[in-house]
Design a protein that fits this description.
cell membrane; 9-stranded mixed beta sheet; 1029 residues; 6-stranded mixed beta sheet; Aminopeptidase N; alpha+beta; 28 helices; hydrolase; zinc; 36% helix
Length: 1029
């Protein structure tokens, strides 16, 4: 699964999805209304005549207008992936009225069975008892998507008894269980003639969402029983279980559909089940639907039969699935059209379902889907396991995609569309990568599944790695898109150097907070760790181990040690890993602790040897935060030298062991020749050097930078600027190294350089040093600007991506020729508002912001008007950000007011985007802070509404305070923050947010005290004059 909000930081640049240039923030432009009115009474129960001996009620019980059992769960929460964002118990309604039916094994019983609702202290690590294992489910469900959003269902579970037990416990959440109709009987393969215990009572544990049937006798180990539970539920209005949504077709027709999102712990909302990933079983799904709709599930349709006495309704029965986890069961009931894709083999039908206007922009899928499937089959030596594949594009913009086995769901239309006439290759790379990721899941995640959510990286990290490989092997996109994988590393390094970073492997996770384990680390850090291991073991041994892992555990579940065992065996057989060393020994040091090492290489006086010392790298050097500062890893050291440069030899030269903080490296050249460690940055660590080696590298870059591999040039830029920012290296050294950038023609080094310099810009923008800094940046950008060749040119509609990046950087630093270009383009657009293509799509944000910053009221008013006229979500986002670029304090203050009173606040994070954008501008810092303090009541109220609607409570409050603090740099700013915190002592969330903000400002103050004078001296020494502080 891909979850975009799980991959973003609060108002920071989103981590790229490997080959994806930029992920859009989670959207919410498709509104989901309140519950539809009851258009007609539900038809007579279709569950009264069931198979077997199970007896069910013949009189359905319907809630009037389907009154909500648990209202807080039914709010529309597009960023919510679990239904448990708070600690309030999720309740079930248990029906125990006078009904026909048996209570447990004998027909005709009508005795009253006691039902107890209970709560206990929330056990976030609760696991089902190990005594039972489901082997087969028969799920019957009838969703009234065009009626009152109710669901009537029944689940029949064949269970194998592994250990003697007197109870049956499974997961149930927010549904009406008909206790008197629950049945327990012998299943096929059970002991002939063995008695079936009867139910004594039921316990509904609300906190851990389990429903337990207690028996009057033991079920002995080896028994096989069938457990049938009828239930009623509601199609949720948020993304959990079987849920409902409505959308409007291009012709204005309003339509409804049923969709599914069961990962990670939402299958229990859809039907009673053993909702843990390792408890795999086969599934037989029967769906009642109206004849004017289509049902799609994991497997091909088997039969369709009319429902007696229910005109216009039919039963769709699907083929039985292979063994799989509950979260993979898929159901979609819809009225969407589809197209057929020609597969890489003739026996595999592939269909894509979407609104027609979306289908018209999917020609690329004819190449991508068969290509990825072919790659995965070739790499793994395992054919795609099912007999069909459906890809359903849900008409929404939720920022999620899910890898349903045989039925992939795309919950965001933006990430499935590509028009070669309107979109560039970057967009193609983005949409192709998303498809590659979900298709790779058909092997890693579906065929082989993590045993528990603490090992979710075995699904998400591996598929991220595999989708990167697929993109490289297929000639879908150019190298400029493939380079994004490298940029991802540097974005991730920043996240993983924060004190808030978490380990990849976490057995103490809270399953009800999936964002804590579906995060940037389980996706991207693990992908990069696998990339590192492939170089450590060799690509041949790595693939051999991965294939063996997949073959042995197909249709099963695994833990990290299983993967380590297979990789070790392959590496030992190919002699790429010492026999006394295992992959588990190495990998555990990277997955069981947060962060990564900084390796400092200090060469001997002669230079022919060196000491490599490791320590945990933290961006903040606050000593109070360094409790685990002495963590160690198994670090694969690779290196080359000026004497014989070979950047392609990425096999390990020396191991810096996880049991030691330092090791010796020998056979280096003399001290007048540089050395470079971590070749092509295949290792997940930063490198620092002694001053002499840094100086040698600086001279090499200034003389002939191309002698050093581009990946290592990128590494040096990112490492040294981060090390300078955190006080490990002087800015004298760092700024001297990056001076070579004016000769750099590759895009990636420039991008990493610009991202790092943005922090310095924010720190200096309100100081006298800023003018000198700006002119210094101009001196670096002018050669690149001249290379692009856009001086005074307005015909830029065909601008290339790398050139658009140069324009963005030049205008961002107010290079006069770029400001002129942006103002001219914007003026042209103002003359012909209907001709939006006057400004290239890639330059929307740059041109709009620059023109408004250097323009007046007319430019601002025009952008404000266009914001409301535009129907393009990306365009609206660019306009929204650009409106905050004005240098007019009155305009900006009014803009902040408008953000809380206009349509902006109804859009995704719109008001917060405005606030953050204003706070980030040079003159906006005091404005944003004053606005925050003077309008706190309105902001807090709005953030509460936002929190309820979009995420866990209180997160928005923290975002506001932190956003206001990110560019504060003085002790006076800290004093104001302390006063603000003390004035809100009655609100723990505000206090907590204030503490976070105080830490940020403290880091900024320390940065200024440590670096301001050094930077000023360096700038002045090179002729970039600054004013007095």
């Amino acid at each position: 699964m891909l979850r975009w909000s799980a991959l973003e930081g609060s108002y920071q640049t989103l981590l790229r999805l490997a080959s994806v240039v930029a992920l859009l923030t989670t959207g919410n432009t498709l509104s989901v209304s309140s519950f539809p009115s009851l258009s007609s009474s539900p038809p007579t129960s279709v569950f009264s005549s069931s198979q077997g001996n199970s007896l069910r009620s013949t009189t359905p019980v319907w809630l009037p207008e389907h009154v909500l059992v648990y209202p807080a769960m039914y709010k529309y929460k597009p960023v919510m992936y679990s239904h448990r964002d708070d600690l309030t118990a999720a309740g079930n309604t248990v029906s125990t009225g006078d009904k026909d039916g048996g209570g447990g094994g004998e027909e005709g019983g009508k005795e009253e069975i006691d039902v107890k609702n209970t709560t206990q202290p929330l056990n976030k690590n609760f696991r089902l008892p190990a005594s039972l294992r489901p082997t087969h489910y028969i799920v019957r469900v009838q969703p009234y998507i065009n009626g009152n959003y109710s669901v009537r269902g029944s689940v029949q579970i064949d269970i194998e008894v592994l250990q003697s037990t007197s109870n049956i416990t499974l997961h149930v959440s927010t549904m009406d269980i008909h206790v008197q109709d629950i049945q327990l009987e012998a299943a096929e393969g059970d002991e002939e003639g063995a008695s079936i215990p009867r139910f004594t009572h039921f316990v509904d544990n609300l906190d851990v969402e389990v429903f337990t049937a207690h028996l009057d006798g033991e079920l002995e180990a080896g028994r096989r029983v069938r457990y049938t539970v009828p239930y009623e539920g509601t199609l949720e209005h948020y993304m959990g279980g079987f849920y409902g949504l409505h959308y409007t077709d291009v012709d204005g027709t309003e339509r409804y559909m049923v969709s599914t999102l069961n990962q990670p712990v939402n299958a229990r909302i859809a039907f009673p089940c053993f909702d843990e990933p390792q408890l795999k079983a086969t599934f037989e799904l029967h769906v009642a639907r109206q004849v004017n709709m289509t049902a799609v599930s994991n497997m091909p349709l088997l039969t369709t039969t009319p429902i007696e006495d229910q005109e216009g309704w039919v039963w769709d029965s699907f083929q039985t699935t292979p063994p799989m986890s509950t979260y993979l069961l898929m159901l979609v009931v819809m009225s969407l059209p589809h197209i057929n894709i020609t597969a890489h083999r003739q026996d595999l039908p592939i269909r894509i379902w979407a609104r027609q206007e979306v289908l018209d922009r999917m020609s690329f899928m004819h190449q991508v889907v068969p290509g990825v499937l072919d790659f995965m089959e070739t790499y793994t030596n395992i054919s795609y396991s099912l007999s069909k594949l459906d890809i359903i594009v849900v008409p929404s913009q939720e920022g999620i995609a899910f890898e349903g086995w045989g039925a992939i769901l795309m919950y965001d239309e933006r990430f499935i569309q590509h028009d070669p006439l309107e979109n560039d290759e970057v967009n193609l790379g983005k949409v192709a990568w998303v498809q590659a990721h979900e298709l790779a899941h058909q092997w890693f995640g579906n065929l082989v599944t993590p045993r528990w959510w603490g090992d979710v990286w075995l699904s998400e990290g591996i598929t991220t790695y595999m989708s990167n490989l697929a993109m490289q092997k297929m000639a879908i996109v150019s190298q400029s898109v493939a380079a994004e994988a490298s940029f991802t590393l540097h974005e991730l390094f920043h996240e993983d150097s924060q004190i808030t970073a978490v380990p990849v492997f976490n057995q103490q996770l809270d399953v009800f907070k999936p964002d804590t384990y579906f995060n940037v680390f389980s996706y991207f850090k693990c992908s990069l760790l696998l990339h590192m291991m492939a170089h450590v073991l060799s690509h041949h041994a790595f693939r051999k181990g991965m294939v063996s892992f997949l073959h042995e555990h197909q249709y099963g579940s695994v833990g990290q040690d299983d993967l380590s065992r297979h990789l070790t065996k392959a590496a030992h057989e190919t002699h790429t890993l010492p026999q006394d060393l295992t992959v588990k020994t190495i990998l555990d040091t990277w997955t069981h602790q947060a962060g990564y090492p900084l390796v400092t290489v200090t060469r001997s006086p002669a230079g022919t040897s060196a000491t490599a010392f490791q320590e945990k790298y933290l961006w903040s050097q606050n000593s109070s935060l360094l409790s685990d500062h002495y963590s160690t890893w198994w670090v694969p050291l690779t290196h080359t030298s000026q004497a014989s440069p070979d950047f392609n030899d990425t096999l390990v030269k020396v191991w810096l062991k996880g049991t030691e903080t330092q090791t010796s490296v020998h056979n280096l050249p003399t001290r007048d020749h540089w050395v470079v460690f971590n070749l092509q940055q295949t290792g997940y660590y930063r490198v620092n050097y002694d001053d002499n080696n840094w100086n040698l590298l600086i001279q090499q870059l200034l003389t002939d930078h191309q002698l050093i591999h581009v990946n290592n040039r990128v590494q040096m830029i990112d490492d040294i600027l981060n090390l300078a920012s955190s006080g490990k290296v002087s800015y004298n050294t760092a700024l001297s190294l990056v001076e070579y950038i004016k000769k750099e023609n590759e895009t990636l080094p420039w991008r990493v350089f610009q991202r790092n310099m943005e922090h310095m810009k924010k720190m200096l923008q309100s100081t006298p040093a800023y003018e000198g800094f700006k002119k210094y940046m101009w001196s670096l950008l002018v050669p690149l600007w001249n290379l692009v060749g856009l001086e005074n040119k307005l015909e830029v509609q065909t601008i290339q991506q790398e050139h658009s990046e140069a324009v963005k950087w030049a205008c961002h630093h107010n290079l006069p020729s770029c400001v002129y270009l942006a103002a001219s383009l914007y003026a042209q657009w103002m003359l012909t508002p209907e001709n939006i293509k006057v400004v290239p799509r890639d330059l929307w944000g740059t041109v709009y912001c620059t023109a408004i910053a250097h323009g007046g009221e007319a430019e601002w008013d025009f952008a404000w008007q266009q914001y409301f006229l535009s129907n393009d979500i990306h365009h609206k986002e660019q306009l929204l950000a650009a409106l905050s670029c004005s240098r007019d304090t009155w305009e900006e203050n009014g803009y902040l007011d408008l953000a809380l009173t206009s349509e902006i606040k109804q859009r995704t994070q719109g008001a917060f985007q405005v606030f953050y954008s204003v706070a980030s501008n040079p003159g906006g810092k005091p404005l944003a802070w004053n606005f925050l303090t003077s309008r706190w009541s309105a902001l807090a109220n709005f953030s509460f509404i936002y929190s309820v609607r979009y995420s866990d409570s209180g997160a928005a409050v923290e975002q506001l305070v932190v956003a206001a603090a990110e560019t504060l740099t003085s002790q006076q700013d800290m004093d104001k923050l302390r006063v603000f915190r003390d004035n809100h002592r009655d609100n723990p969330r505000v206090v907590a947010a204030s503490e976070v903000a105080l830490d940020i400002v403290a880091r900024n103050v320390a940065w200024m005290e440590r670096n301001y004078d050094v930077i000023c001296e360096w700038l002045q020494a090179r002729g970039f004059n600054i004013g007095l502080r």
